[in-house]
Amino acid sequence: MKNLQQLVRDMTLDEKIAQLIQLATPFFKGSTDQGEITGPMKEMGVSPKIIENAGSVLGASGAENIKAIQKQHLMDNRLGIPLLFMSDIVHGYKTIFPIPLAIGCSWDLELAEKSAQIAALEASVSGIHVTFAPMVDLVRDPRWGRVMESTGEDPYLNSEFARAQVRGFQGSDLANEPERVAACVKHFAAYGAPEGGRDYNTVTMSERDMRESYLPAYKAALDEGCEMVMSAFNTVDGIPATGNKKLMRDILRGEMDFDGVLISDWGAVKEMIPHGIAEDEAAAALKAIQAGIDIEMMTTCYVDHLKSFVDSGDLDEGIIDEAVLRILKLKEKLGLFDNPYRGADELLEKELVMSENHRKVSRELAVKSAVLLKNSGNILPLDKGSKIALTGPLADSGDILGAWSWQGSKEDAVTLKEGILQKIDPSLLSAASGSSIEAISQEDSAAAVKSAEEADVILLALGESSGMSGEAGSRSNIKLPEAQLKLFRELKKTGKPIVVILFNGRPLDLTDISGEADAILEAWQPGTEGGAAIAEILYGDENPSGKLTMSFPYTAGQVPVYYNHYNTGRPKDAPDAQERYVSQYLDIPNKPLFPFGYGLSYTTYSYKKINISADTLVKGDKLTVSAEITNTGSTAGEEIVQFYIRDAVGEVVRPLKELKGFKRIALEPGETKRAEFSISEEQLRYHHADLSFKSDNGQFFAYIGSSSDEVMTIPFKLQS
Ligand code: NOJ
């Protein structure tokens, strides 16, 4: 064991402060992948001394490259302190898994964990030590492009996925498992709630709401042992998270007991200047270090200013020492003082990255993530002998990996056309793009119509390019682009049945097509094996089972719309509701087009005989709620059974439903299984007006069902 306290004592103040900066790969000597330092990076004016003493690197990849940078660094760094390599491995390294929003729709924690484990393996043999994931921001606004990175709108579900991903990335012993990487949960806190869905925008919410809905998933990641936290760009109660002492020192470090490394998001320290809470870089540096940010990502406020604050006595050097020690501890935990190259291994990299087995898991997850939104007249699954007209801008496109797949390559992705050709005789398929994502020509649409006229079924692949979601990918209009709607209308005139397959990074406003399409399959951005997975579903070799974890609004004007909302004093569906003076829109329903938990299958399920083990829950005991689920169709399937509760009367208003459990159950045709869920008093706690977290005696309801909108109910009481 290295004596890290001694190492900190041996470091000069300059060396310590440089440990706190994170710079992108092109700054480092030795890199075999020398990018050019241009534009804003060049203007940063980072001296060679700072680079020699820097603590971590952003965005490097490749075993050979990372080893070369590390080797050179160890020669240049006076005390031989190794660099930490951190990158965004969000849903896969080179083998790309479905986007996290899709993974959420699988409700499959084991597979989610497995996907994170594979991502960690590919990243670690390629030299990476830390991934900037999981992103666990709760999301309710599909205009925000980064909803694709989240698992959805529910605090409980997000927390379960946060845990699964941390387990997958980190394993149980980072020091002895070089095939794992440290995880960095982000973006602390409440980054998923920007006003108007515009990225980086102000977040306004009460502390109670933040604690109730937004903080649980970050906390779950930390409880699972997540090593790092990244601060958010947004304000939290008027103060940017990165300079927010209450959020970082009191809540994160104090209440949540987090003693790991806290990194700012890219440039977020300096951004306190335009936010208007720091007059210059010096003031921004002081606020961030005092708030508890250990590493400043990609700006130089710390290296340029912290020393003068220590010299003037405005900053206690002990605060810097603590930050440095935390970084060194992480390096030690990752085993870097013993082996600075850790898992980096060119041979393993060749052998394991994008291995057949990894692609197989990606395919499996893509199958489970797809959500069947509509299937009129059971047009799906398709007959393998049908004549198919395959069209739409995403019919033969590799742009199905999603915005966070920087190492993934579109060329490696199986397109829908390729997937379909693995299933049917090529003579049955005619393909024409019909339009691009945002433009349509007379010629292209005519070619698509012509091939449709000769086919039995039209398969229409619509959606978004990966650039239309992700960071800085907000949209005010969340319909399909007009060119694609036009193509849909032209094809509709042929009278042939239309199966729409959607590849997109957010819930869309689908009202233009939802009535007239015969079937709609939400494929999301399904990753490297996307086309193969979707073809399996289209041809019935797999039965779709995914269910939405984020509501699909009726229109953007209905946003935010989410299942776990409050009732209001004038609910529209109350038995005595008036016609006009109720909480409603005059022009659209209150309900989303497709609610949380919704998703169809090729079979049908019936829910019967809800039962509860007692009608009163006594504190310290548990109740069991169960229901019988039968596969009433003729196809085997997996049903995601959902368990919700409602607290009828609270000290503050309570959601109409809250997810408290779920199970994926496999059922053969005609088979019945009983799904059981337990309730304890802890699950009924919530944040009261004074922020205390406790339960109230009284009336509750338990629900079991196939979606948030289709449930059976049974009452119970809590008695402490
Ligand atoms: C900015 C993004 O907000 C964050 O999620 C990411 O980890 C960093 N850039 C580093 O790439």
TrEMBL record:
Protein name per Swiss-Prot or TrEMBL: beta-glucosidase
Family per similarity comment: Belongs to the glycosyl hydrolase 3 family.
Superkingdom of origin organism: Bacteria
Segments forming domain Fibronectin type III-like: 639-708
A molecular-function term among this protein's GO annotations: beta-glucosidase activity
Keywords: Glycosidase, Hydrolase, Signal
Enzyme class: hydrolase
Catalytic reaction list: Hydrolysis of terminal, non-reducing beta-D-glucosyl residues with release of beta-D-glucose
A Pfam family recorded for this sequence: Glyco_hydro_3
